[in-house]
Amino acid sequence: MKIPTLASHVILLVLFCAVARTSDQSTDLPKRAMERSQLTLAGGRPFLLKAKVVERTNLDNADYRADIEEYWAAPDKWRRTVKTNKFSETLIVSGSATSETITGDYYPNWLRTIVTALFDPGLSLQGVDLSSSSDNPMIGGNQLCRRFTFMAGVPPVSNKVFSSFCFRDALLNSVSMPGYSVDYEEYRNFGGRKVAHKILEYIESGTELEASITKLSDLKSIDDSFFVAGPPKPPLQTIRLSEQTLRTLVQGSQEIRWPTVRSGAEKGTLSLYICIDRSGHVREIYQLNSSNAGLSDFARDQVMTWQFKSAVQQGIPVQIEGILTFAFETSTADPIPVLEEDEGLKLLEHRVEPIWPANAAPAGNPIFVTLGVKENGDCYGLVALHRTKVIEEPPSTRQTLPGSPMLSRWH
User: Fold this and answer.
1) What single DSSP character describes residue 342?
2) In the chain, what are the domains?
3) What is the reported pLDDT for 388?
């Protein structure tokens, strides 16, 4: 879905919250959270799990629909089936033997993200030391969140990219990394563990997926032949490459044609997370940090047409993905007016007062919001601001700002 580019005004607002906050800065929190919740750890109870995936923002979209099923007896004895309208995989692990049967030519990132979030959430936490960061992407609240910043790009072009990890009640609440953004909800007890029965995946503004566990039960006695792997065959692999390596595989020009902008920075950088199939075709692109978010769509549309050399590992074609960073320089044409709060409020025809839950912000803390208004009066582009300084958070962080969905109903 495109980010709206037509707007008549931008309004600067300040709102207030009254909530409480808690603190849990245990360095072993990621490990403890997985021990409490991950189903597939050694010693776990054998289970049968079934889940369905839909696009919660557009239930009719069959492109983001999937069925997932897993019979799990032990960490080295399980059978998983994943099905969409364009791809399916049956993966069997039996001791040291692994076999895979697939249909379709591309295992999409959005689906791999949900499968990982369901069965191996600890994978995203490997190597994470919460004590090495004091940066909290939430405005207070009762969550423990830590954000990590690293530089993407190939010198002299570089850009800040973020990863964030949030916990609530010593359980994983959300993970946001390049190419991987999920929230965990509706924890329920099973086999002595608390299991999230709903997983939300952020794709982009206006597109969010929901994976719901429809069945989680004890695995009844099943004949061992159900877990027998076929002829040894390595599973379809997806390899993450450095940006420098990724650019060596581009066939043709890497130039981006930048349009004029109506607002925001005229010069800066932006980063995209791209996913490429075994034939070198770009299949998915996720927007990361940008000095001017309005230009990310233009870059994405052009990179989608790029062709890459096929990547091979140990003689076998693999999917590849990674970050691409671009420097842009353009000019402003037909600028969007920026209104102060008192001016903007005079234009309001419909207002819904935000309801702030207990994890929104410390009591009395101001929350500054930039509210974009399209020419038809609809609102978009809600951005969390800290104190008096504008800080545009990564899209997934911005979307989780409590209360902001109600602001989008303003007119």
Assistant:
1) H
2) 9-17+335-407 (no CATH), 29-127+171-227 (2.50.20), 238-329 (3.30.2420)
3) 46
